[in-house]
Amino acid sequence: MSPADPAVLAITDFTREYPATVDAERHIDDALDDMIRLGVRALLVYREQRIVGLITSYDIQGERPMQFLQLSNYSHHRDICVADIMTPWDALPALNWETLQSMRAGDLLHLLEDACLTHVIVVEGDRKNSSCIIRALVSRTRLVRQLAGTRHAHH
After folding, report:
1. What's the CA angle centered on 136, arms 130 and 142, to 5 degrees?
2. CA angle centred on 26, ends 23 and 28, rounded to 5°
């Protein structure tokens, strides 16, 4: 894949692939196990059938659990749930599906790198009301791998 190829080719399109999800109340270590099993680095977080955020392996393995413990009444890492450290829906960086369709893969990578993002959701419709749907997820790691031209199979 080259930087000039359409960005649409480099995303996980949920009309073709089932999104990897996790319940908001699941413990973060279990969520990380899920990611490893599924071969992904991010899970959409749901509560009562609604998407409420996104959690990445970087969130779980980075500073967030420690920061959360310092600010909470919890004392153990194992007590932390996905909802405690996820990026909530309102704070998730999102791209519009229409915008994405006119972008090239190289543009998409620059956008992620400039904003220091590992993932971005792609939405269709108006995000401010309920007609909005999550159409796709962009993973920087996956994009970099595709642009590098390596063809790794998913584990």
Report:
1. 155
2. 120
117 phi-psi bin (left φ>0, alpha ψ -120 to 50, beta other)? beta
Q: Are 119 and 137 in contact (CB under 8 A)?
A: yes
Query: Between the CA of residue 145 and those of 32, 34, 47, 92, 129, what are the distances in Å?
Result: 21, 22, 32, 23, 35
Task: Mark 77-103 as b/e (b = at least 16 C-beta within 10 Å).
Answer: eeebbbbbbbbebeebeebebeebeeb
Q: Which residue has the tokens 């908001």?
A: 24
- State pLDDT tens for residues 121-149: 999 987 666 667 889 999 999 999 999 87
Over residues 1-58, the pLDDT tens digits come to 899 999 999 999 999 988 899 999 999 999 999 999 999 999 999 999 889 999 999 9
**Closest residue by Cα to residue 64 from 82, 47, 51:** 82
Who's near 148: CB < 8 A, 6+ residues apart?
none
Q: What is the pTM of this model?
A: 0.85
